[in-house]
Amino acid sequence: MVKEIINIGCIKHRYTDSTEVNICGLNFLMYPGEKVALLGANGCGKTTMLSHIIGLLAPQEGEVRVLGLNPSRDFKKLRSRVGVLLQTAQEQLIGPTVWDDVAFAPLNSRWPREAVEERVSQVLAELNISHLARKIPHYLSGGEQQKVALAGALVMQPELLVLDEPFSRVDQRSKKEITSLLLNINQKYGTAILFTTHDLTPIAPLADTVYVMREGEILARGTPAEVLTDRKVLQAAGLETPDLLELFYALKAKGVDLPPTLSLEEAAAVLLREIKKPDPPA
Ligand SMILES: Nc1ncnc2c1ncn2[C@@H]1O[C@H](COP(=O)(O)OP(=O)(O)OP(=O)(O)O)[C@@H](O)[C@H]1O
Ligand SMILES: [Mg+2]
Description:
Rossmann fold, 2 domains, eight-stranded mixed β-sheet, 11 helices, 11 strands, binds adenosine-5'-triphosphate, binds magnesium ion
């Protein structure tokens, strides 16, 4: 059986102001090469869970295993194997220029200068931000900072990418570009991808598996189609059903029962077929 790369049962974290976050419910398991979305409303505990996975926080109770290690204890061993994009991307940008920032990890790992130059140019080009190489990260726009932080997460070609709200500050076109870049990286290198979101749109194209969280409780796991068509689960988690599915439900209520789909292209095809269907004989 394939060994999981992330395993979380029940964990409890108490912040210094004594806010308690209990992450429990279904076991959170993630496998090599898998693309997983962690879905949940604001404040439900997504960032808290990711912070445990990347070793920024340690649980007061329970255990977190990542690539067979304990992330808060084995932080250094995991550093180059796990690429991280924080929700507050600007806080992880430490280089005086974008180039320095993205080059930080490979230089720190003593890569030859030429290899660093090549890899940094490649990753900046993949994210369409080569023109920002000499800019000061602090002065970039929010979306630009997010892309630079993502470049830093990708530069070491990690086994696992942990991305906290990677689509929150980028525009529609960048969302599509980042989605196809991540799909490409996943296919080419088998990189596993875990991302959080409260926006449902990136889930269907990017995730194999979706976990739904409500106030720390992991209450559902399934494929994007299973989870996004489960109105009860979405409602329980305080999330909105995607507009496209609402359209299918509204049609069903009027007697037109068509198979709901999350893809705009498929929805157009289904609706066209229905419109062009010859009328039944009177
Ligand atoms: N540093 C902190 N100190 C005290 N409480 C915190 C801290 N960070 C998070 N919390 C609290 O823990 C709970 C979970 O927060 P968390 O940031 O994990 O949620 P989230 O699901 O990532 O939300 P969002 O979608 O807004 O990013 C919230 O009630 C929040 O107020
Ligand atoms: Mg968060």
